[in-house]
Amino acid sequence: MKNVQNCYEIPKTMSTQHPDNVNTPFFSCSPLLGGEEEVLEAYYAYSHLYCREQMWDCEGKEVDNFVVKKLLSKYDSYFTQKQLGRDLFLTLRLPNPEIEKTEAKILLETLESIPRSFDIAKLFYGNEIPPIFEVILPMTTSYTSIDNIYQYYCDFVVGKQHMRLGGRDIKISDWIGEFKPEKINVIPLFEDKQSMLESDEIVSRYIDNKNLDYQRVFFARSDPAINYGNIGAVILNKIALMKIEDLSETSGTPIYPIIGVGSAPFRGNLHPGNIKGVVEEYPGVHTFTIQSAFKYDYPADEVREGIRKLEERTPGRSQIVDTDTCLGIFDKCSSEYNKRLASLCPVINRTAEFIPGRRKRKLHIGLFGYSRNHDGLNLPRAITFTGACYSLGVPPEILGISALSDKDYEQLCEIYLHFEDDLSDAMQYANPDSPYLPKEDFEFAKEILGDFELDIDHKEATDTILDKISMNHIEEAGPYILRAASKRKFLG
Fold it and tell me: Rounded to an integer, what distance in angstroms lies between the CA atom of residue 23 and that of residue 19?
């Protein structure tokens, strides 16, 4: 087989999308990206899209702990010019052993791979800049869950080098060599209401007495949207970002927030055409995630330009919001959203089975390999959930919004600055004829927006999907699910 680097040199103006499938990059023969293709994807993100940081997801997959070795050996001419750990960054997303019991040992294996990657990079570059020095802990709920990762690495991954073998004078470092880097940065990812609202307290305790140069904090946008609705997710992020900025100022430790946005309005509405809107919505965020729809459903030059705008922006101050007002609106909207979800859950789950996957993941305990359980409802992952809703002609952004009073709506627009823009982007994909579309929410959205245009091609695709469901032939809906996704420029 030819060197992949030479196989996939692409023109600057070429689309990044595979011709046969939405969300499938040009370099993949399958819509499911596996380990080797994800190594290539990391190289592509660095070299062609000009991303400076790539998250390497070790959670729920057949993880490849040799990613640094493969990148440096396969693409040596590129990485000779760009050093991992200095010019480009690779950040590991770990499994959380408190939540994902079957993945707990993978956490240890992944942490053990960091010193090995250091040795490879030292040999390649001739210096001691660590190629990996940060890890992300998903579903963080406490100070100890972050600190356990930090202390385990210091005490057992690196610390074991000082132990002696068989009571003799020889230490493990004499036998194997030194273990570096001596410390790693642990980035907590907060995903649920309680942990997001308490994130400042959790991080404050974690950074105390550690003498850190800085701390990064990651806030989810997709899972809160599934659990609490679109409005609820925005409100939680606004409160959390405000609190973290206050902590940064009072603690004296710079704290740099990350937000995990996708391209659907329900998941953040970040795509190459909406950089300005998302940056205005979250001015205090230092890092925005660039997900598959952003990278692969737009021409490469538009993707690069969008990433350039994000890279060159100067973060400002996070928005100051009134917590009590925010939580009052949150309670109303999330409660109504959950009522809608309870009735829609069976058809969402049924449709979700036919939403194509994008990453090869191992089967977790749960209905859909990595299901989210919320209020007794088994829900699919964010992309699958969102794609299923849109395929039914039900933009999930509108679910529960009719709970807003006139006063709530006025206050919401002061908190959620681009609420009407996001709602408008979503409503074009509604299907007024869908039996699953909550009429009160749809009518409320129409009152807010006034005249708006439906995407007729998208409606026709969802009409067919709905017909297949009514005739109990949903297994035939796949091509129309993809057709609708192609119109939206995101799967979910």
Answer: 10
